[in-house]
């Protein structure tokens, strides 16, 4: 028995070894497979990391190229696709945030496996410093940071005495305090017509100048205002047949001072010689009148604000309702161009462009490009430029004709329409002011139930309301508009001559 037990032991041990060997080989195979998978996985991860690093390099190169392009010709920096590079597709998306700031996003895409697209994006903002210095407060630092889907009044203030007709507003920051400089016409003309309003607390605006006056009297009244980049001087268009250009020292907003001498526009006719519109750009003031028997557009050198020098003028036979000026490189040559919103006729455009040649004395001023003539004979009443886009506002005459346009100005000899819109105006009303920042266009209109409007212009070919609340109903007719630090400032024709608009986050729509 013992011998038989002993004799069967080797057979048992031999079978156990075979099973153990098979198990060992299986474990070894699994281990080797895992090692191989890890090895291949590490190789894949390394490959993905290398591809991603290469894509980051290419995206950064796109941004560096964009920076170089911006230095050479700022307006040439637009959305475009690049030639493919091996497995990579490269592009840049450019959004104009303000007249002097763009955001460029470099995008690199590729595909490693079927159905597994990869993407790298880098973004940067580019500032046209020269334009920022030339435009000053008209080149807001930052675009709106809200959705602007529920516009509402933050605060408002009436002029002294009440019921005066507010005519324009320009907001600026001086010594860390935010002000809205407001102009008016008045009856009798001995009343005040210029105010500095402290709007740092937008819900509780207050006059900066102590009472009982709170403002100053410059004469028969003012039609328009623009503040220089330093926030020291306000240039105003006077509703006077003489001394149409006036200069106000606002370096101390609590004590604004009218500087003398005021300047009379030369070569204007007897009808409508009053200053009507005004724009400051790079130590120059551009002032327009309504249609007169003489010259309606004038340029002044205000390098010395105490001594404005008339540098040139031109007769255009139209009301100069609004002005926007900028330098633009065309064919390698930098030109100073004035874009005007003017009264219409059957044979002339509502957007007129003038070339201001400063190499001669007096400056040579001549028409440039084709301008833009919209359907109908509605006057051009307001204008704003952002990148290669012109935003045009018009009056209402016929319901079939739009009042708000986005225009492609990449070729000034062939300006074309992106989109247009009827914004709900009625007879004898108009869009009298436009401020654009980021993806929003803010409109001031003279329709009392639609005095303020905000539209989404992110897609220039498809203007859309920001919400069902994008048209704000209040009782005054708007006369002017400005945007600064996520607030919109509106001047109005009657009570509450200055109104501050904000995006109310909890307002019911």
UniProtKB/TrEMBL annotation:
Pfam families: LVIVD. The chain crosses the membrane at residues 21-41. It comes from the Bacteria. Keywords: Membrane, Transmembrane, Transmembrane helix. This is Uncharacterized protein. It comes from Candidatus Sungbacteria bacterium RIFCSPHIGHO2_01_FULL_50_25.
């Amino acid at each position: 028995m013992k011998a038989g037990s002993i004799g069967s032991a080797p057979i048992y041990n031999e079978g156990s070894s075979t099973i153990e060997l098979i198990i060992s080989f299986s474990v070894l195979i699994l281990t080797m497979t895992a090692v191989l998978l890890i090895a291949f996985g590490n190789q894949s991860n390394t490959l993905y990391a290398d591809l991603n690093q290469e894509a980051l390099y290419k995206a950064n190169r796109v941004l560096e190229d964009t920076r170089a392009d911006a230095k050479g010709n700022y307006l040439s920096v637009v959305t475009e696709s690049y030639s493919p590079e091996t497995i990579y597709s490269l592009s840049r998306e450019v959004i104009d945030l303000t007249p002097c700031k763009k955001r460029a996003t470099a995008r690199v895409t590729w595909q490693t496996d079927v159905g597994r697209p990869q993407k790298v994006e880098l973004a940067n903002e580019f500032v046209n410093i020269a334009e920022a210095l030339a435009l000053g407060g008209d080149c807001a630092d930052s675009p709106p940071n809200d959705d602007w889907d529920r516009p509402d009044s933050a605060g408002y203030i009436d002029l002294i005495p009440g019921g005066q007709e507010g005519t324009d507003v320009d907001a600026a920051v001086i010594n860390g305090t935010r002000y809205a400089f407001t102009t008016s016409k008045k009856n009798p003309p001995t009343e005040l017509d210029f105010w500095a309003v402290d709007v740092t607390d937008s819900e509780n605006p207050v006059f900066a100048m102590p009472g009982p006056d709170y403002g100053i009297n410059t004469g028969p009244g003012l039609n328009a205002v623009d503040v220089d980049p330093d926030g020291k001087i306000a240039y105003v268009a006077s509703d006077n047949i003489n001394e149409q250009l006036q200069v106000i020292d606002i370096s101390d907003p609590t004590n604004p001072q009218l500087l003398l001498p005021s300047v009379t526009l030369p070569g204007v006719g007897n009808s409508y010689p009053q200053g009507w519109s005004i724009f400051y750009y790079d130590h120059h003031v551009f002032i327009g009148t309504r249609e007169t028997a003489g010259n309606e557009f004038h340029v002044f050198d205000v390098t010395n604000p105490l001594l404005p020098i008339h540098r040139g003028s031109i007769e255009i036979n139209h009301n100069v309702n609004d002005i926007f000026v900028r330098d633009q490189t065309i064919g390698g040559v930098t030109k100073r161009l004035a874009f005007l919103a003017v009264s219409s006729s059957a044979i002339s455009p509502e957007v007129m462009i003038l070339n201001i040649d400063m190499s001669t004395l007096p400056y040579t001023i001549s028409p440039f490009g084709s301008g833009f003539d919209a359907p109908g004979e509605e006057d051009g009443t307001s204008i704003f430029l952002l990148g290669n886009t012109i935003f045009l506002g018009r009056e209402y005459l016929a319901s079939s004709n739009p009042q708000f346009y986005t225009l492609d100005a990449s070729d000034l000899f062939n300006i074309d329409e992106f989109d247009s819109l009827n914004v709900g105006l009625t007879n004898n009303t108009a869009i009298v002011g436009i401020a654009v920042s980021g993806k929003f266009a803010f409109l001031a209109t003279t329709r009392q139930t639609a005095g303020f409007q905000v539209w989404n212009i992110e897609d220039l070919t498809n203007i859309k309301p920001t919400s069902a609340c994008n048209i704000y109903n209040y009782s005054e007719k708007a006369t002017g508009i400005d945007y600064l630090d996520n607030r919109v400032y509106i001047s109005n024709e009657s009570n509450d001559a200055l109104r501050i608009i904000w995006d109310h986050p909890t307002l019911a729509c």
